[in-house]
Specification:
Length: about 400
């Protein structure tokens, strides 16, 4: 089965074309700056690679057509015609409480996606555009929605309810939803495979650390709590997002700093986190250089806050599950920043962690252990693959 996976943002489309017989990525790329005359298009296959080609791409439909044209190109395509595309799997950010699993796209799903636009105004409208573009270009090809929120629908009410008037939940669906579910599910399964046990027999804490970041408690293969909440702003400190703060701070900003609600929202989502606290960058590669090469005090302080909040979340989730067997680091930062993994895991011997600094220094791809052989809790670096997970979920649904 050959599956085209799409991750549509407001002005971008990331794609992979995967042959599930051998999990081979036949082609991948990204369309950026959709709607602009100088949009950027990147395409890569075994035979051909084009990086950052500038071209006008007016909307998602035009972007999808460009992707399909390259996949079927006589010179550098990987298929002869569109009949070789067996299915399309879409990353969809928000499925609300309606979907606890991936689903085949139909009229009912589209109604739910539209309803959830008010919960994910930056993401769901773009996801809908991607589905509509595929429907126009490939009307006979089945499509599947893989929801970021679906994996977390197993959370019990004690984990997802906020201490607000109960009718806020019943009438307005204000609750914790959680995100990054596709990644958390994928790395949990990979971790179980690595340690040679069934995921149903493990208590796993997965740390997806990128520019956006979240931690998830997975008990018996099911999400029982996660750090992101009603929106991706809640939880641990991130690249530009504040994470958890006193809820009175936004009111203080509005009353005393004379900021509007939109200005406060912009500060908390785009000017805070590592960027705001370090006053340097949200790019952890720059922060790492400032720490290791320059001993920059602001970078060091921000980094200590960053890792401390991850450490606290791990401790909280170990308490929630009455223990932990495996801790996983994944995401761009979690996979590629050894000093982060070490700073989080040192001084956690009480939990059963024995950290191995030499193993941790590896930048190898895939999955490897960064704890010692004697460590009661296994600490792993697992390379996430959300696109493969989307393709696998698509096959599962259509089977």
């Amino acid at each position: 089965m050959k599956v085209l996976t799409l991750n549509c943002g407001s002005s971008s489309i990331k794609f992979q074309f995967i042959n599930l017989e051998n999990e081979d990525v036949m082609a991948d790329g990204v369309v950026e700056r959709i709607g602009e005359e100088d949009a950027l298009y990147t395409y890569k296959s075994e035979k051909y690679s084009v990086k950052k080609l500038e071209m006008p791409i007016s909307d998602h439909t035009v972007g999808i057509k460009e992707i399909l044209k390259n996949l079927m190109s006589d010179k550098h395509g990987v298929i002869k015609d569109q009949s070789e595309i067996d299915a399309v799997g879409h990353r969809i950010v928000h499925g609300g409480e309606d979907y606890a699993d991936s689903a085949k796209i139909n009229d009912e799903v589209m109604k739910v996606l539209d309803k959830c636009c008010e919960l994910a105004p930056l993401h769901n409208p773009a996801n809908i555009k991607g589905i509509e573009a595929i429907t126009e270009a490939l009307p006979d090809v089945p499509q599947v929605g893989v929801f970021d929120t679906a994996f977390h629908q197993t959370m019990p009410s004690r984990a997802f309810l906020y201490a607000l008037p109960y009718n806020y939940y019943t009438d307005y669906k204000i609750r914790k939803y959680g995100f990054h579910g596709t990644s958390h599910k994928y790395v949990a399964l990979k971790a179980a495979e690595f340690v040679g046990k069934k995921v149903e027999d493990l208590k796993i804490i997965t740390c997806h650390i990128g520019n956006g970041a979240s931690v998830c408690a997975i008990d018996g293969g099911k999400s029982v709590d996660t750090s992101m909440g009603f929106t991706p702003l809640e939880g641990i400190m991130m690249g530009t997002r504040s994470g958890d703060i006193d809820p009175a701070i936004p009111m203080y900003m509005m009353n005393n700093m004379k900021m509007s609600a939109d200005e406060v929202n912009n500060v908390l989502n785009k000017q805070s986190g590592m960027l705001g606290l370090s006053d340097i960058s949200n790019d952890m590669r720059e922060i790492e250089d400032k720490i290791l090469k320059e001993k920059n005090d602001m970078a060091i302080q921000a980094f200590e806050v960053y890792t401390y909040k991850i450490k606290k979340m791990i401790g909280a989730y170990a308490a929630a599950m009455n223990g932990v067997d495996v801790i996983v680091f994944t995401g761009g930062v979690g996979e590629k920043m050894p000093i982060l993994r070490e700073d989080v895991c040192v001084n956690m011997e009480y939990l059963g962690i024995k950290f191995d600094s030499k193993r941790n220094d590896s930048f190898a791809d895939g999955t490897f252990e960064v704890s010692t052989d004697e460590s009661r809790v296994k600490v792993l670096k697992v390379q996430t693959n959300e696109e493969l997970m989307i393709a696998l979920e698509t096959r599962k649904v259509l089977s």
